[in-house]
Amino acid sequence: MKKAKLFIGLIALILSFGFVSCTDDTIDNKPRQEVLPKGFFVLCEGLFGMNNSSLDFYNSETNKVILDLFNEVNNQGLGDTGNDMIELNDYIFIAVKESACVQVINKDNGKLVKRIPIVDNNGTNRKPSRLTTNGSMVYLCTVDGNVLEINPFSLSIGRIAKVGRNPEAICISNNKLYVTNSGGLDFGTPIGYDKTVSVVNIATMTETKKIEVGENPGIIKELRPGLVGLIVKGDYSNIQFKTINTSSDELAGSFDIPMLNFDVMDNDNIIYTNYDYNSLSATIKLFNLTTNVVNPVDFIKTPGITNQIALPYGIDISKATNEVYICDAADFVTSGRVFVFDLQGNYKDAVSVSYVPSKVIVRN
Predict the structure, then answer these.
(1) Please, which residues bridge with residue 244 across strands?
(2) What whole-number distance in Å separates Cα of residue 198 and Cα of residue 19?
(3) Domain 3-162+257-363: what homologous superfamily?
(4) C-alpha R_g of the chain
(5) pLDDT tens per residue, range 272-288
(6) Where exactly are the structural domains of the chain?
C-alpha cells in the first residue's frame, strides 16, 4: 500500500467526520497484573522507519487500553513494522518486518519468551511478512522469497522452502501451504509484479507448483476445507478476489470486487473491507461464497458508524466472542482505532490504540 497516497486521500475524510462516542478506553496506568484479564491484543504496525510498532491490549473488564503492552512488560520496544501475529498454544508469534525477527510472547502476561532472528546465512534481514499455523508448526513467509518453518517448542527455525518473488501472505489448506508472490519490489522495473501463488508440500517442505492468478497477489486465507481465497491487487485500479481449489490446485473463481482485506465468517460468507478514493469512503460488506454474490446491504447495521471508519485496514472475526474487529489505520500518521461489532453488524465499541492497527487476537 502506498502510504503517501493514502495520507493525501484521507485528510479530507478525517477532517470532515465527527467521531462516535466510545467506551472510556483511556490509558490504564495501574501496576500490571501478572496475568492479563479478558480482552484483546492489537498489533499496531507503527510508522515505517520510526521503530515504534506496538502491541496494545484492551481490557474488557475495565474498558481501558494498555498502550504498548510489550514495552511496558519487557522494557524494550517491539521493533519496526509489526506485520502479523498468530497464536499457538501458550504463545503469540509476532513478525516484525524491518527488525528482522519474530517476537514470541507468553499470551497470559505479554512477557517476551524469545526473539527469533529472521536473517539469512550472511546475517541479512529476510523481512518476515505473514504467519500461519497447522496447529503443530508455525510457518512464516519472508520477502526474500522463502517460507520458514518455526518449531513452537524449541522456538527455532527448521526447514526452509524456496518460493516466488517477495511473498506477501500465506495460509494452509489440504495439508499444503499457499503463498502469494507479489513481486512488489520489482514494481516499476521491466520484470514487474509476480503473478503466482506457490504451493508447498508441508511433508517435504518443497514447492510443488506455481498457480498463475494475476499481478500482485496479496492477502490469502482458507475459506473452507478445499478452498482458499485471495486478493489480487494488480495496479490497485483493477483489484479482484479469486479462489483456488486446493484439491486440484487450480483457479476456481474470479470476481471483480475491490478489497483491502477480508476474513471468514463461516463456510458461506466472508466479510471484506475496502476504501474508495473517489468517494473517500469505506465499505464493509458480505460476499456469499455459495452464490458468489455481494450482499447489497452494508454489513454494519448501526446508522452513521461506517462513515466514522477512515480506512478499514485490518479485519478479524473471533469465533470465541462472536465479534468482528475492524482496524482503522486513519491516515497512517495519527493513532488508529479498533471498531467492534457483533456478527449481525451491530456496533458495540470503538477503542483508541496506537499507530496503524492491523491485527487483533482475542484473549477470552
Answers:
(1) 228, 251
(2) 43
(3) YVTN repeat-like/Quinoprotein amine dehydrogenase (2.130.10.10)
(4) 19
(5) 999 988 888 899 999 99
(6) 3-162+257-363
